[in-house]
Specification:
The complex is a heterodimer of chains A (about 110) and B (about 120). Chain A is mainly beta. Helices cover about 0% and strands about 50% of the residues of chain A. Chain A has no helices and eleven strands. Classes of the chains: A mainly beta (about 110), B mainly beta (about 120).
Chain lengths: ~110, ~120
């Protein structure tokens, strides 16, 4: 059973645009929501993460928006660059010790010059 | 400071064979998790090792087993390989408890192809 649904599957944005990737979750016990960036041939790398006690978190050009009542969260990339072209995964985890991460299916983002 | 290292990077096996994948965690980390990433999918949790014991397990059959050594390095073993086991196998390390350190660091993975 997929517990984290991610959309869109792929996304093409012009340089300088703001790609938005959305995720929805079902398990109300989730309370930690990271985003990972993965380049071809590499493992996922943590980009930014949020807890449900805040509605927004910004780190550099990356912003997470969180809607607890809707059980949805999204990643926004400001002033996108060709180097941001990668696959992005949302994930979720409960906070009981070293709980496993449940990942979305990924979004392949392409930033065109 | 070396990050998470995995070996080998690529592996080709035949159905029915057995395979062992290896992982060295990031310096200072004592917890190792293994994930399977099928083509075009997100990583799926296999299991986690801490203090040389399997602490959590995902929805994977007993053909998947692991081990953690006193130096915190880990192995993933898969017996009786199936075509569907073809995937990128990722190792991730962290410190316990995650209440104070929530970051998982992933290696670049081992690409396993089963023919």
């Amino acid at each position: 059973q997929q517990q984290v649904k991610q959309s869109p599957q792929s996304l093409i944005v012009q340089k300088g645009g703001i790609p938005i990737i959305n995720c929805a979750y079902e398990n109300t016990a989730f309370d930690y929501f990271p985003w990972y960036q993965q380049f071809p041939g590499k493992g996922p790398a943590l980009l930014i993460a949020i807890r449900p006690d805040v509605s927004e978190k910004k780190e550099g050009r990356f912003t997470i928006s969180f809607n607890k009542s809707a059980k949805q969260f999204s990643l926004h990339i400001m002033d996108s660059q060709p180097g941001d072209s990668a696959t992005y995964f949302c994930a979720a985890r409960t906070n009981f010790g070293n709980e496993k991460l449940t990942f979305g299916t990924g979004t392949r983002l392409t930033i065109i010059p | 400071d070396a990050g998470v290292t995995q070996s080998p990077t690529h592996l080709i096996k035949t159905r029915g064979q057995q395979v062992t994948l290896r992982c060295s965690p990031k310096s200072g980390h004592d917890t190792v998790s293994w994930y399977q990433q099928a083509l075009g999918q997100g990583p799926q949790f296999i299991f986690q090792y801490y203090e040389e014991e399997e602490r959590q397990r995902g929805n994977f059959p007993d053909r998947f087993s692991g081990h953690q050594f006193p130096n915190y390095s880990s192995e993933l073993n898969v017996n009786a390989l199936l075509l569907g086991d073809s995937a990128l196998y990722l190792c991730a390390s962290s410190s316990n408890p995650t209440a104070t350190n929530e970051k998982l660091f992933f290696g670049s993975g081992t690409q396993l192809s089963v023919l």
